Amino acid sequence: MSCIRQRPRQMDIRKGVVSLATGAGAVYLLYKAIKAGIKCQPPFCSASPICIARLAIERERHGRDSGELRRLLNSLECKQDPYTRSMILHSITRCVYLLESEASACTNDDITLVGSMLDDKDNSVKIQALNTLKAFSGIRKFRLKIQEHSIKVLELISTIWDSELHIAGLRLLNNFPLPDFVHPQLRRVMPALMEILQSDYILAQVQAIRLLSSLAQKNDLLYDILNCQVHCNFLNLFQSTQPGSLLFEVLVFAERLSEGRSSPHYRAVKWHYNEQSLHEALFGDDSRLADRLLALVIHEEDVQIQACKVIVSLQCPQDVGIRPSCPPSHSCFNNGE
Fold first, then answer.
1. How many CB atoms lie within 10 A of CB 75?
2. What was the pLDDT predicted at 89?
3. Which of 51, 45, 131 has the alpha carbon at shortest distance from 86?
4. What is the pTM for the complete model shown?
5. Could you tell me if 121 and 152 are in contact, meaning their C-beta atoms sit under 8 angstroms apart?
């Protein structure tokens, strides 16, 4: 009886040993598979951000160029499908940011090659080309060459309604001063810039308002901006519910417009504006801008300060920069306000 009773116990022990061995074997096989996978990694892929970072580290350690950026630019000259062209441009952009010495060693011909991608039929290729040009624009010696593409970039922004393209194009244009020869084209695309500003895509709106704020400081473009037609709800951009980043930029824009229209140079001419113009929305007799500004003085600090600056510029529209104070009759606010 004792032998019979012990058999089940011995069987359980044997099963446990077998299970343990099986588990250990599975772990060992898994370990071998992982080890084999590590040893058999795929070839170096330049499209990976990690791989590009490794290139930069290798260059810094050994004090030599990796040649990766040149290889990518050369491959861009070959006929590729749109997806491949887009990925190559994406990798070039990363290389320009990470491999400074290699990027600086590039030539104007390389900029021309990248700029030619703006004529590609595929929007994703255009977007990546814009990003690459922006990366190269951080290198001073390429800025003049990149400025030559400004008119083409403005054309893309004004004719293609794509938020990602708008962001990429506007970021590029905001990265360097626009030359005077672009001003005629800027006048033509002003309505498109104003439409982007009034869209619902925050990142594109911020980039558009930054460009418009910069252009508002140009005497020969100020009237074109102020007379540009806007939607009847344009002042919604000044609502306290808007993101702080957008509100701040909109307020900077309003301040520059207010200062510009108050300058002696601008006041020397009697300008006429259409009823739906930006000027009427902001500075017309029926404008409710003052109410919107007063509601912003309880916003976050940078918005508060900027709102106050706009209020001050509106209170003295004809005396900014001329007198230290202005008479009450010049105020855009009611006495109670």
1. 15
2. 97
3. 131
4. 0.77
5. no
Query: Is the Cβ–Cβ distance between 146 and 152 less than 8 Å?
Result: no
Residue from 72, 74, 104, 67 nearest 87 by CA: 72
Query: Please, is 249 exposed, middle or buried when counting C-beta atoms within 10 Å of its C-beta (0-12, 13-18, 19+)?
Result: buried
pLDDT digits (tens, 9 = 90+) for 14-42: 555 445 444 555 445 444 444 444 443 43
Distance CA 178, CA 211 (A): 10
Cβ contacts of 315 within 8 Å, gap of 6 or more: 326, 330, 331, 332, 333
Which residue type is seen at 121? K
Long-range CB pairs of 168-171, under 8 A, 24+ apart, other chains included: 168/127, 168/130, 168/131, 168/134, 169/130, 170/196, 170/204, 170/207, 170/208, 170/210, 170/211, 171/130, 171/134, 171/207
How far is the CA of 112 from the CAs of 3, 68, 92, 115, in angstroms?
A: 91, 19, 14, 5
